[in-house]
Amino acid sequence: MLNIVLFGPPGAGKGTQSEKLIAKYQLVHLSTGDILRSEIGRGTKLGLEAKKLMDQGVLVPDEVVIGMIESKVDANKNAKGFIFDGFPRTTAQAEALDKLLKTKETGISMMLALEVDNEELIKRLLNRGKDSGRADDQNRGVIQKRITEYNNKTAPLKDYYMKQNKFSGIKGVGSVEEIFTSLAETIDKSHK
Ligand code: ADP
Predict the structure, then answer these.
(1) How much is the average pLDDT of 113-121?
(2) Per-residue pLDDT averaged across 33-43, rounded?
(3) Which band of pLDDT confidence, cut at 50, 70 and 90, is reported for residue 133?
(4) Is 191 domain-assigned?
(5) Among 146, 152, 153, which residue has the most ligand 1 atoms within 8 Å of its CB, making it the best to mutate?
(6) Confidence grade of residue 132 (pLDDT, cut at 50, 70, 90)
(7) Do the Cβ atoms of 5 and 82 come closer than 8 Å?
(8) Is residue 108 part of a domain?
(9) Domain assignment present for 182
(10) What is the number of structural domains in the chain?
(11) Is the predicted pLDDT of residue 1 greater than 90, yes or no?
């Protein structure tokens, strides 16, 4: 299997690049942000609770997202592989993911990290907020909080995957095509 963790701060372009990667490598896209927004859209109890946290720019509890990922992985038994987008976001989530994949006799192949500076991130997110209607993209304070959460809780995962020799950093600034080419080259080099 080809199991990729697509990593990077809010606004790094994970969603855009995921779409292209799933098409090229026939992978299943699992975005915890998208799953949570769909729960909100359907007005489920989980969605209502998650919304309060997401609107403040803080992470939802580990148990919640871990449970969501477990059921989605189970629901895609014949997948060639997965792209994990926006997950794991904490060390506890990364450990839970390793454990889950081990029970399926597979594991994470690589972490691809999109690297974008703070100023560019804020610009992109405010722009996205104008047409996506996403509440968490429309407020500078919430954006800043998400970046702080990322730096405190998520950025340490770089070390987690580096220790396993699975980390690759990719420049996340440039055209969508250029960035996609760098990602695909990195995948093809390590996954033959
Ligand atoms: P972005 O990467 O642009 O911040 P996402 O769509 O990935 O957007 O996530 C939006 C929000 O959903 C996050 O700010 C957080 O509140 C919640 N969320 C998404 N994934 C996770 C996760 N793995 N763990 C905890 N919270 C999450």
Answers:
(1) 96
(2) 97
(3) confident
(4) no
(5) 146
(6) confident
(7) no
(8) yes
(9) no
(10) 1
(11) yes
Residue 97: domain span:
2-176
| DSSP H helices in 77-175 | 91-103, 118-132, 140-149, 157-162
Residue 143 banded pLDDT, cuts 50, 70, 90:
very high
Q: Whats the size of the chain, residue-wise? A: 192
Q: Domain for residue 147, yes or no?
A: yes
Q: Is 57 in the pocket of ligand 1 (CB under 6 A)?
A: yes
Sign of CA dihedral 136, 141, 147, 149: negative
8 lines ligand 1 (CB under 6 A): no
Which CATH number is 119's domain given? 3.40.50.300
46: DSSP letter: H
Q: Which amino acid is at 51?
A: K
Measure the CA–CA gap between 107 and 177, rounded to whole angstroms.
28
For the annotated catalytic residues, the residue numbers are: 14, 89, 128, 134, 146
Ligand 1 binding pocket includes 116 (Cβ within 6 Å): no
What span, in angstroms and rounded, lies between the C-alpha atoms of 174 and 17?
12
Mean pLDDT, range 12-17, rounded to an integer: 96
Distance of CA 180 from the midpoint of ligand 1 (Å) = 22
CA angle, corner 30, sides to 87 and 78, nearest 5? Answer: 125
For residue 146 and ligand 1, the question of a CB distance below 6 A is answered with yes
Q: Is the pLDDT of residue 35 over 90?
A: yes
